[in-house]
Amino acid sequence: MITTIGFDADDTLWHNERVFLSAKSKYKGLLARYHDPEWVEERLDAAEIRNIKHFGYGIKGLTLSMIETAVELTEGRIKGSEINEIIGFAREMLEAPVDLLEGVSEAIEALVGKYRLMVITKGDLFDQETKIARSGLGEYFEHVEIVSDKTRNVYESLFSRQAIAKEEFLMVGNSLKSDVLPVLQIGSNAVHIPYETEWFHEKVDPVLLYGLEIESLESIRELGKWLDNKSKNAAGYEDSTA
Ligand SMILES: [Mg+2]
C-alpha cells in the first residue's frame, strides 16, 4: 500500500526546461558574433556538466558556466556589458512565472488527505523555495526536500529521517535518472511521467534500465486512477492470500 508520494518539481509539477532552453537560446544569440550557435551550445553543455560538482544544479550554476564559456570562447574579448546581459538572463529565469503543467492542480488536490505528499527536488534552495511558494501548491505538501542530487543514498536518508517505509513510498517524476532509477534500485516504487523534452544530463544508459519494470504515465492526470488500481490490486492480493 502506498501511503506517501514524493513529487519531483521541475518539469513534473511546472515547466522548467522551457525556461532554461529560452535562456540558452538568448545566450547563443549574444555570442553569435563570436561563434556559431552549435559550437557555443556544445561548449556550454560541457561546462555545465564539468561544473555541476562545483556549483550544483540550477540557475546560478548555469550562469557561471555561461560566463566561463563566454570568456573562453572569446579568448577574454567578451565585454562587461555582455557579461551583464548574461546576468540579466539569470535574473529573467529566476523571475519567470511558475507555469504549472496541465492537470497538476487537480491531480494534487485529489490526493490531499489520502496520501502524505512531499516535494523532492534538486536545484538552488532559494529558487526552489520561491517557486513552491509561487506555485500555489505549497499548502498541499507536508514536506519539501531540496537536495543537491537524487541518489540512492539521498532517498534512503530521507526515508529514515521522515520515517517512511520504502514499500509504502511512491516517487513521481520526469527523470528516469533522478526520480525513477535510484528509487527502484532501493526497492521502492516510482512512476515516470516524461516531459516534452529531456535535459541531456538526465539521459540514462539503457543498460541500467534492463530488467526493471518502469511504470510510465502520459500525464499526471492519470496518477489518481493508477493509484486506485494499485491499491485495488494490493487488496485483491491480500484477499487471495488470506
Ligand atoms: Mg524534473
Please tell me about this protein's structure.
The protein has 242 residues and is an alpha/beta fold. It has helices spanning 17-30, 37-55, 59-73, 80-95, 104-111, 125-135, 152-161, 176-185, 206-209, 223-241; strands spanning 4-7, 116-122, 143-147, 169-173, 189-192, 215-216. The chain folds into two domains: 4-15 and 101-241, HAD superfamily/HAD-like (Rossmann fold, 3-Layer(aba) Sandwich), CATH 3.40.50; 17-95, DNA polymerase, domain 1 (Orthogonal Bundle), CATH 1.10.150. Helices cover 52% and strands 11% of the residues. Helix 3 runs antiparallel to helix 4 (80-95). The longest helix is centred in the N-terminal third of the chain and has 19 residues, at 37-55. The chain is elongated and about 70 Å long. Magnesium ion binds at residues 8, 10-12, 173-175.
Task: Write a brief caption for the model.
The protein is α/β, with parallel strands linked by helices. The chain is built from 10 helices and 6 strands.
